[in-house]
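Lab meeting notes turned into a lecture example. A postdoc, R.K., suggested we walk through two folding results consecutively so the class can see how the record format repeats. The first protein's sequence and structure tokens come next.
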Amino acid sequence: MNKNRIVLKETNKRDAAGFLLFVFLLPYVCACLWGHVGVDKNALHQNKEQEETENVINYEVQADMGWGVWKIPLEEYLVYKLESVIPEEYEKEALKAQAVLLRTEVVQTLMEEGSERLCVSGDGMDKWYETDQSVTEELEIYQEAVEETDGLYLSYQGEPIQASYFKLSNGQTRDAGEMWESGKYPYLTSVDCIQDKASKDYSSVVSVSKVNYLYALKPYVEQGYSIEDIWEGMQLDVDDAGYVTNVSFVSGENMIGQIDGEAFRHLFSLPSASFEVNQEKAQIVFHVTGIGHGFGMSQYSANCMALNGETYDQILKKFFFGTELAKIE
């Protein structure tokens, strides 16, 4: 009986020691069985975040400042660019629509080049290089427009569009299909902009002396013809929106010269290619309506829409048929 008791006590000591060893090793056992799962999950999560960071496109702009290159993040560059192309007194929704178009321009260029870096001229950007409080306040409305459209650009069938814009139409935007029959820009269709006619800048008059008129046309017209020959033989081709697409010069049955409508208007510094022309005693007089090439978004109309409560995405949908917003990822 005593022997059995002694054996029983020894057995209890062994059990107790085993139990204590189990308790002592339990945390390590748990760590081995389950702890590594958490580590793997954290590692996977970190790897996923790293991969996502590596896949993010970080577009950068390099501005040639003359004294060197200024490297600017895309979104910061857009603030400066926005300030240079649209009046600050315009409604924010109009500014936001313009910000999307500027971003679209950059994205389209960089995608075509297969690059993440855009090189631009730094002309006019010196005032932004070292900003003080007054400059920061001046840019505030533009900063907000860029931030509130962060990363957004306009696309058509998954590709960034030709983001055309201009100041003021002649009452209607132009259909790109009339200029380029290839159908390359199906989203650039003609849009009514009746409100543009109310702008104080809607109409203008440009006068050119007959001598300067003939001199400017010399590279485009065969030699040996007088100003009267050129004037009497001038023919204007006009699209449905009223913009001149082509200027031809004919003498009898012979074509003696031809020039594209946009090139013609730049040749004589006309605000747009929507014009009529008259000959006076000593000069040629152009009566012009609108400002700009007429394709895409009229900034003046965009502002009128914003004043009427329409949002930037509604504005863009009006001027760019069948497009949708996409985001840089």
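The second example is placed directly after the first for contrast:
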Amino acid sequence: MPLPRTRGTALRQQLAELRGPDVPAKALDARALAALAANPGCRRRAILDGAGVNKATLASALGSPSAFGQSQFALTRGNAFEAKVKADGGAELLRLVHEKLDRAAEPPAHARVPELTAIGPEGRTARTALALREATEARGEWTLLDHPMLALDVAGSPAFLEPDAVVVHPDGSWTVVEIKSFPMLDGSADPAKVGAAARQAAVYVLALEEVAARMEPSPEVRHRVLLVCPKDFSNLPTASAVDVRKQRAVTGRQLARLTRIQDIADTLPEGTCFDPARPAEELTAAVESVPATYAPECLAACELAFHCRDRSRAAGAVTSLGRSVRAELGALTTVPDVLAAARGEAGDPADPTVVALRRAAALRAEALDTGAPGTGALGTGVSGADVLGAAACR
């Protein structure tokens, strides 16, 4: 008699069916997790990432190809730089860790570099946990874990993550190392790129904290990570310590808010499949069966952003104008509703949002009547909701 399937096994089978027959799963990495955490209300991204769907391939099949992602040249350059940083047993990398994060410790004359190979992500995760335990107990030594494998529970499903490196200090504490190919010019780098790297590192910190919590006593997971980049216009490595406490706290809260993947999967129509080989009409219906929460920020973080933007605009959703505008508008969720409220055709006159919209519309009309286009709603210090109201009178 066949053994009954566990809930976890049933979920994995269900997610495989959503991907399509013989379609390999795309691993959920820290970059994707950070983007998912930035938009926790998007069920579409949650289920697609949870099922391991390749969203770039899916977007092309839907007729909205993505421009999101790294070029092959950037990947090659990044891999070459990472190899240089880790050469000679990670001597240069450990020197930077000592210089930027732990000057009180003995300089790393040499370091242990444990072997982390194992069968499958679960095996590598277990091997990494064992190596971290052994390195923590071996006080007084530096240990470099090259591409360890960590697991993080995301909406009830495990995500396997692979940081560039984790360093165990002589005092037993752990540090995440992020190696990027963008340059540091005169000691500073592009703030947007540093911010993205910090959010990615914060995901690794969260995963490491889960490993540490299973140890007794629990070692310290440092919240200052090491960001290693090329110096100026050379290929020489330099580094900066980045405090990721804020990013770690925000990402942790947002991941906790994610609806469980099982709950989303259970609401889908029977036979739903995101296999890009399916006819375009069926594929579109499958994608649209899962609600999305589009915002302009998605364009820099999600391969399906162009498709979702087109659908959001067609539906007149105010989210297509940005999260800050959406937050200003309360119960008004579509642009036609906003315009009707601004014109006095709909809306509760006691609603502060409706009052603000009508006030902005009146100011804009007055400015146009007096021929002073520079003194409309934009010059009154009113909110984004007021600006939308002004647009109703153009």
